[in-house]
Amino acid sequence: MAEENKAPHPVDKYVGMRLRSLRTILGLSQEDIGKKVGITFQQTQKYERGKNRIGSSRLWEFSQILGCSTSYFFDNFENWLENQPEYAEYFQKNIKDSANQRSAFAKGQAYSMHDGIFSGNNGITQKETLGLVKAYYGISDKKTRKCIHSLIVSLDSKKGNENKDNSN
Q: Model's pTM, two decimal places?
């Protein structure tokens, strides 16, 4: 018999995080998205926490509602997993030990538009970050949005240092 308090599988937890993040950015509630696929907000909550696995057909439905590909839910998973102490053993056994047998693409060395977003502790799942992204895309005037983008880029210390290095 399976343990009741067993931690969610890392893939289920990650897919749920991705679902929650995109749903929040798009301004949809758990109830909104649940109604669109015929489930309760409680079931959506369980999916987002990784408590329940999302079947492939349900994942496809979510991708259609959220306007993303199904692969969005798995993008950058290995980088995220590597930085999760509670999954260190799983990472070592299932990812790191077999890395030499996989191609550069399968190892995540191919470009992904999500590279870095979910790796480490950079705050993408924090409400503040999600609210900022939602507010940014809520600005209807493209010129204003471009100015705000330029301001943020100018304040980014990493970008600033890159620009200084490239100006020589």
A: 0.59
